[in-house]
Amino acid sequence: MTISTRTISRRTLLKSSAAATMMAGIGAPLVARAQQAEFVYKFANNLPDTHPINVRSREMSAAIKQETNGRVDIQIFPSSQLGSDTDMLSQIRSGGVEFFTLSGLILATLVPAASINGIGFAFPDYPAVWKAMDGDLGAYIRAQITKANLVVMEKIWDNGFRQTTSSTKPINTPEDYKGFKIRVPVSPLWTSMFKAFDAAPASINFNEVYSALQTKIVEGQENPLALISTAKLYEVQKYCSLTNHMWDGYWFLANRRAWERLPEDVRTIVAKNINGAGMKAREDTEKLNANLQTELAAKGFTFNQPDLKPFREKLRQAGFYAEWKAKYGDEAWAILEKNAGKLT
To answer: How confident is the model at residue 28 (pLDDT cuts 50, 70, 90)?
Structure first.
């Protein structure tokens, strides 16, 4: 059987010729094997294709393919293409997908400690976040994730500080949350925090948020500006209150069996590029969140900046911090307060 030059270029034949001469013939199956990656792994996430995490992930995938000489091909599936967060958490555990980025606040359904960085009004700014998450708090959480039989990369990816949007009213004081129908992720911490404000939280997976807002199932939602923009939530919301009520990030997870199938030298290359892409995406997301207020205001969003001290005090009075200290335990809470200051 001969190979058509119409289907395989001269350059491709030249590249494969060295390998081909070592085999007993040059047929189409041999060329196909030469082209095929040894490890084809899926990376799933819930973010729009234009989000910095997916932009940097495409660069990461290309770099990994090049540095492993084509042995590893990481295929990216954005926008919940492979299912909701809860679906994909099951898939990463079973091996249905090999890589998955997930908010620690949702991962907490499996690893309770993973949501501790999302405690309401804990971190005032990015320097405080990175000191904690690249330091002892992040190390503590990663150890708990590892115990759940998942592999987790060293650097957490940034989602940003979360803001409150609404179709009905701005949020200026803790009292404005009273009775407010707000979408929250499927996570006990979010539900608990907004119940402490006497709001009416509804747990809805992110792939259903736009339609829930559009059909008025809920009045509002909360997310970082980068996600509000890339998911076009401004089309179905009017007000944005800069509550900065929690910082949220994505842990880059791997299925343990799939990870251990990779040779050690390949694992080193993959981890280096994933962590490097995560650091670049942090810079992108922080810049995007900082610049988006002007852009979104031009699209009709009305912004307000509430005083945040009364919100933190309301959570303290409602027993929110005491409740979660008991749930996380003294060790984890001590590490949090070392980084965020006294909460209880």
So the answer is: very low
State how far Cα 193 lies from the chain centre: 20
Angle between the N-to-C axes of helices 28-35 and 10-20, in degrees from 0 to 180, rounded to the nearest 10: 100
The residue with tokens 């013939």 is 25
Instruction: Report yes or no: 233 and 239 within 8 Å, Cβ to Cβ.
Output: no
Which residue in 74, 116, 126, 119 sits closest to 252, CA to CA?
74
User: How do residues 279-313 score in pLDDT, each as one tens digit?
Assistant: 999 999 888 888 899 999 999 999 999 999 999 99
- pLDDT per residue as tens digits for the range 224-279: 998 899 899 999 999 999 999 999 999 999 999 999 999 999 999 999 999 999 99
- CA-nearest of 229, 203, 340 to 288 is 229
156 vs 128: CA distance, rounded Å: 14
CA–CA gap between residue 105 and residue 117 (Å, rounded): 8
Q: What angle do CA 39, 102, 124 make, to 5 degrees?
A: 135
- pLDDT tens digits for range 167-211: 999 999 999 999 999 999 888 899 999 999 999 999 998 889 999
Q: Is the dihedral of CA 168, 169, 175, 177 positive or negative?
A: positive
**How many Å is the maximal CA-CA distance in the chain?**
79
For residues 285 and 117, give the distance between their C-alpha atoms in angstroms, rounded to a whole number: 18
What is the spatial distance between Cα 93 and Cα 151, in angstroms, rounded to a whole number? 10
- Tell me the angle at which helices 330-340 and 136-147 cross, rounded to the nearest 10 degrees: 150
> What three-state secondary structure class fits 183?
strand
Tokens coding 179: 């009775």
Specify the pTM. Answer: 0.82
Which contiguous run of DSSP H or E holds residue 163?
strand 163-166
CA distance 13 to 189: 57
- Beta strands 220-223 and 163-166 are antiparallel
